[in-house]
Amino acid sequence: MVYDQDALTAAGVSAPPTNWDEVKTAAQALKDKSGDARLMMQPDWARYLAFHYAAGGTMLNADGTKVEIDTPDGQTGLDFYYGLYKDGLSTTAADAGAEWPGDGLAKDLADLVFEGNWVFPFLQANAPDLKFGISPMPKGPATNATLGFTVSYSIYAQTKSPDAAWEVVNYLTGPDGMAQWTSLGLAMPSRPALSDAWLAKFPERKPFLDEGDYAHGWGFGPGGQQFVTDANAVLENLFAGKEDVAQALTDIQAAGEKDLSPTGVATPSGSPSPVSSPSPVGSPMVGTPASG
Hints:
The protein is mostly helical. The protein has one domain (2-152, 192-287): Periplasmic binding protein-like II (D-Maltodextrin-Binding Protein, domain 2, 3-Layer(aba) Sandwich). It contains 13 helices and 8 strands. Strands 4-1-5 form a 3-stranded antiparallel beta sheet. It has a 3-stranded parallel beta sheet with strand order 7-6-8, covered by helices on one side. α12 runs antiparallel to α13. The longest helix is centred in the C-terminal third of the chain and has 16 residues, at 224-239. The radius of gyration is 19 Å and the shape is globular.
């Protein structure tokens, strides 16, 4: 959760929200102060999904063999997320004239957004005077939840230099190499042994690292990219008022059953990380965004 500290103070919000009720209260206070919705949330599966999990929602059943999205807990999550927009307490980047929520914060089109640690270099470059704060994702009615985005260094299957490629990848994913590229200010280390040194350089990012304890991985197996595309289309229809929450969940469940092939073993989906496009497909998150 990334917020404009001065805006929250001016609206009478003495502390950043820690749960969903407080998010709603803060959003109302910000709107009362400015006259406009200053909470920015996207019709985007990669941003919504953290709220889905925080409500107790699931993607798959307990043994990972069946899509299980359309549940009462899932409805609780989407009711809250979309409800903020429906009630005029949140806006979207497109509505406000921004490219993505971090851009909305930088352009003073939003005061409260949910983004990953990639927001730091962006705000430093585009809003260097903004006094912003970082807090953990607000706790949902069921639990704490956020998303963990990772990428990989990969070797081309038909490379003509397999030994050299293997040596490079081993270095980049090893402690020395990872310490080098995570020191640049965008990505977080995935090796716990590097945490202390990384935090010593970026102490303000501690909430992101702490949330790793309850982060859900971003990966849905074969068909994952198509599923994200289909789920986003449904969320866009929901935010456009073309269907209600119940129908949206039914449609997303159907998309999951069509696109995904759960086997009980989590595998990478090939879905892009939140920073792979100008309008990130991500949410409140920790992890290593695409940068390598």
